[in-house]
Design a protein that fits this description.
271 residues; Rossmann fold; Dihydrodipicolinate Reductase, domain 2; 2 domains; seven-stranded parallel sheet; five-stranded mixed sheet; 33% helix; elongated; binds NADP nicotinamide-adenine-dinucleotide phosphate
Length: 271
C-alpha cells in the first residue's frame, strides 16, 4: 500500500482512547500528530499532548476549538461523545477534512446527521477498530449463514465500569452482522436483557447481555446454540492499543480514498 504522509488531529486527547491514539501515532510510520483537542471545560487546555500521553513532550499543544487548528491536519481521529463528534464532523465537512470516527452511542437521528457529511468528505467509522474484531465480523457472517435458523443466538459483552453506553457499539454491530446474514431486522428481533417471567425463548430473537466491571477493556462473545452443540465466537481485548493502531491505519488509508463512508472491513479489504 502506498502511504501518503498523514497529518492527524486527535480530539478527546485527554481521554482513555485519546492518550492511546497519541502514543500509537508516535509509533507508526507515515503519520504525524499535528493537532490535539479537548472539551472547552477541560483543565488540560494548553498542556503538551505528548507529555499527557506519557510519551514525552512533542510540542503539540491541546486546544479547545477545532477552528484554531482546522488548517493543521488532513484527518481528524475522534473518539469522544456523540454531541462533540457531530460538531467536529460539521467543521471537518466545511473545511474538507477527513475523519476517523470511533465514538459510539449515537441515536439513529444523530447517525443520520453524521452520515450526511459523507457526500462531502471521506469518513471511516467503526464500532470497533481492532483487526481481530473485524475478522470476527467476517466469521460471524459465515457462522450465521451456515447454522441458519436452527440455533439460538446470544451476544454477551463486558466492559470497564466507566463505559456509559450499553450494549457496546461492537455488540450491536455483531448483532447486525448476524441479523443481516439471516435476513432479520435487528431493531425488531433484539432482546436487551431479561428479567422475571420472560416466557420461553423465541428462536427468531437475538439476545444481548451486558456486564460492566473493573477495568475490562472489552470482551465479546456470540453464541450459536443448538440442541447438542454450541459454537461460540469470542474476542477479548487486553489493551486499547489494538483499537488505536487500527484507527491510525484507517487514517492513513483514508488519504487514498475519495469522499464516502467506509469502515474497517474496507480498510482491511475483508468485504
Ligand atoms: P473517555 O476516556 O471518556 O474520553 C472521551 C474524551 O472526550 C474525554 O477526554 C472528554 O473530555 C473528551 N470530550 C468530550 N467532549 C469533547 C469535546 N467537545 N471536544 C473535545 N473533547 C471532548 O472515553 P474513551 O474510553 O476514550 O471512549 C471514547 C469513545 O470511544 C466512547 O464512545 C467509546 O465507546 C468509544 N470507543 C470506541 C472504540 C472503537 O474501536 N470504535 C474503542 C474504544 C472506545 P471530558 O472528560 O473533559 O469531557
Amino acid at each position: 500500500m502506498t502511504i501518503i504522509a498523514t497529518k492527524i488531529a486527535v480530539t478527546g486527547a485527554a481521554g482513555r482512547m485519546g492518550k492511546t491514539l497519541i502514543e500509537a501515532i508516535s509509533n507508526a510510520e507515515g503519520v504525524e500528530l499535528t493537532a490535539a483537542l479537548e472539551s472547552a471545560e477541560s483543565s488540560l487546555i494548553g498542556a503538551d499532548a505528548g507529555e499527557l500521553a506519557g510519551i514525552g513532550k512533542n510540542g503539540v499543544v491541546i486546544v479547545d476549538d477545532i477552528n484554531k487548528v482546522i488548517n493543521d491536519f488532513d484527518v481528524m481521529i475522534d473518539f469522544t461523545v456523540p454531541a462533540a463528534t457531530l460538531a467536529n464532523a460539521a467543521a471537518c465537512a466545511a473545511a474538507s477534512k477527513k475523519m476517523v470516527i470511533g465514538t459510539t452511542g449515537f441515536t439513529e437521528q444523530q447517525k443520520d446527521q453524521l452520515l450526511a457529511h459523507q457526500e462531502k468528505i471521506s469518513i471511516c467509522m467503526a464500532a470497533n477498530f481492532s483487526v481481530g474484531v473485524n475478522l470476527c465480523f467476517k466469521l460471524l457472517d459465515m457462522a450465521a449463514r451456515t447454522l441458519g435458523d436452527d440455533v439460538d443466538i446470544e451476544v454477551y459483552e463486558a466492559h470497564h465500569r466507566h463505559k456509559v453506553d450499553a450494549p457496546s457499539g461492537t455488540a450491536l454491530r455483531m448483532g447486525e452482522v448476524v441479523a443481516d446474514a439471516l435476513g432479520r431486522d435487528l431493531s425488531t428481533c433484539a432482546v436487551y436483557g431479561r428479567e422475571g417471567q420472560t416466557g420461553a425463548r423465541d428462536r427468531e430473537t437475538i439476545g444481548f447481555a451486558t456486564v460492566r466491571a473493573g477495568d475490562i477493556v472489552g470482551d465479546h462473545t456470540v453464541m450459536f446454540a443448538a440442541d447438542g452443540e454450541r459454537v461460540e465466537i469470542t474476542h477479548k481485548a487486553s489493551s486499547r492499543m489494538s483499537f488505536a493502531r487500527g484507527a491510525v491505519r484507517a487514517a492513513a488509508w483514508l488519504m487514498l480514498n475519495e469522499s464516502g463512508l467506509y469502515d474497517m472491513q474496507d480498510v482491511l479489504a475483508l468485504r
